[in-house]
Amino acid sequence: MAGMTATPRTRTATPRQPGRPLRSRPYGSVLVLLLAALYFLVPVAASLWFTVDDPGKGLTFGAYAKGLRDGGMATSLGLSVRLGLATVALGLLLMVPTMVVVTLRLPKLRRVVEVLCMVPLIMPPIALVAGVSTVLSWEDDLRTTPLWGTFQALHDKNFPLVLVLVYTVMSLPFLYRSLDGGLRAVDLKTLVEASRSLGASRPGTLCRVVVPNLRPAIVSGAVLSLAMVLGEFTVANVLGFEPFSVWMVHVGEYEAQLSVAAAMLSLLITWGLLLLLTNLAGGRNRNRNRDRDRNRTGNRRRTTV
Amino acid sequence: MTTTATTVQQATPASPGAGGVGLRLRGLRRSFGATTALDGLDLDIAPGELVALLGPSGCGKTTALRIIAGFETADTGELLIGDEDVTAVPANRRDIGMVFQSYSLFPTMTAAENVAYGLRVRKVSKAERAARAEELLELVGLPGREKHYPHQLSGGQQQRVALARALAIRPRMLLLDEPLSALDAKVRLQLREEIRRLQLELGITTVFVTHDQEEALSMADRVAVMKDGRLEQCAAPNELYERPTTPFVAEFVGTMNRLPGVVRDGGTVEVLGRRLPVHGECPGTGRTVEVLLRPEGLKVRTGTDADGEAATVRVATFLGSTTRLLLTTDSGAEAKADLPSWEADALTPGARCTLTPHEKPVLVEEAA
Predict the structure, then answer these.
(1) C-alpha distance from B143 to closest chain A C-alpha (Å)
(2) Across chain B, where does the E strand assignment appear?
(3) How confident is the model at residue A77 (pLDDT cuts 50, 70, 90)?
(4) Residue A300: what pLDDT?
(5) Please, which of A39, A88, A97, B112 could form a disulfide with B146 given CB 3.0 to 4.6 Å?
(6) Interface probe with A: pick from B62, B92, B170, most Cβ of A within 10 Å
């Protein structure tokens, strides 16, 4: 019996000192997190409540049903998505080869390209659109030239190419920053030379080695650009087109609840779209990162040979 | 391992095998702005030979390797692989395998995908690629690592995969750009032996750039010492060490003493009380020179006598089988001498001794 009673004493050999917690509780961090969550969630929750609360009828989803039935919403949202995808495609086609060439061949031009790409960030969209409007006003002067057809295509209401061009310029800072970060994270020169020494052509190297290694940066730039296009209002409104953001404002002038419901739906759709893009393009990298994290944890316990 | 290597050679009839191809560099010049990286480099490498390009930073060895690989273009001169002039051939058409200093594995590909990359570019069938990748990974001692990503491999393992990747395309020759410099000492030693073993087994002509003389001397058939874009001497390691043709080579490879001497008649020099034949350029009789002598080329005797020059031991460093003594002669010159540790017991700091050189031809340089 004596032996049996001894065991509990051994287990409590390192008694906790009274009044001294083993680890201080992170009250400060929780408070900051709570405040940030409130900052983001309160407006969303208020908007949601506004859309479902009808003072006469109580809780109703009528605004959402109306929005989904509204042809204008589908058309404008479709246009925004198409503009966004075209902008991302054009921006990447323009920026990926440029950044790769600058990194590999013309590193001295890096600062110049950076400054050029950052200009749209400091230039107000209204100034940009003023310039674009002036150029578009030349249309009448060009009526007798082959350029007239191009001008017509530029502001086709169904798919205004001029918006794609302007949005591409506006997306340059996001694409530059993302791609620059991605390029700095890999030893591009060595990877390209390794690929070339193994017989790959330059385009082959770009597709097989460079782009896969830049995938996280490309996805990040694409997501930011897409989000920018989906929310852009000034340029589209001044040029007289009606993508989703403009449609929402127009609807809000006479039907506030529908406008906010559309905003809520757009929020969901945008999140869904961004999530889809991130998953489609970044799946393998995510697995790689997960493996790496797991490996790092494992390495702490063993010596690598 | 030998069995595996034999299998590879049997399975790859197009491989260079024991023959390999020769490489000739003719008058290569390359400048970067005002800096001349290569200043008329001439070098012949025999088929199946491993030549190390050795030299201090900025001597042009990496530029030479990059020109051979096709990543840089020479301003003038020509480059021949076998009988083919490849001076203007782009890097991807030279059929040269290369292992880089930094880890150059493609991070998004597994080890097997990395090894098979060159074959994929050549549109080799998937099954053949997989088989070749497996074979090569086994050859470099990494069986079963096919599905590992580079970040899941250690530095040494990554360089092995890089070597397998370079060999997978059955290159005409192999270029190694300081492939061991990023590795820790133990792995470096192990991998250095494995690279040499593989190179000998495959008989592939190899150019190896390094600034580590021990690495160059232990691995290469011949070592090409470069300085200021030029070739100083290209010779077998023992010849380079024993009979350097220039003071630069003598001092760069191994440790060298510079002791005062005077040139005497008949191409001899008097140093430490002895007359030694001069090897290489010899200034006129009576000129004061610096005589280059290896630490192991000095004899140290306990006590002082008339034969040689009296000296005092300043520091004795035990290095295992040998002990290195730092001595000051009575005339004020400093010298390092290596002798078997069992002979150095009495030569503690402060001990008096006599220093004499071995009777061997020596290099001299006019005193500044």
Answers:
(1) 15
(2) 23-32, 35-45, 50-54, 76-81, 84-85, 96-99, 173-177, 205-210, 222-227, 230-235, 257-264, 268-271, 274-277, 288-293, 298-302, 309-318, 322-329, 334-340, 352-357, 363-366
(3) confident
(4) 39
(5) B112
(6) B92
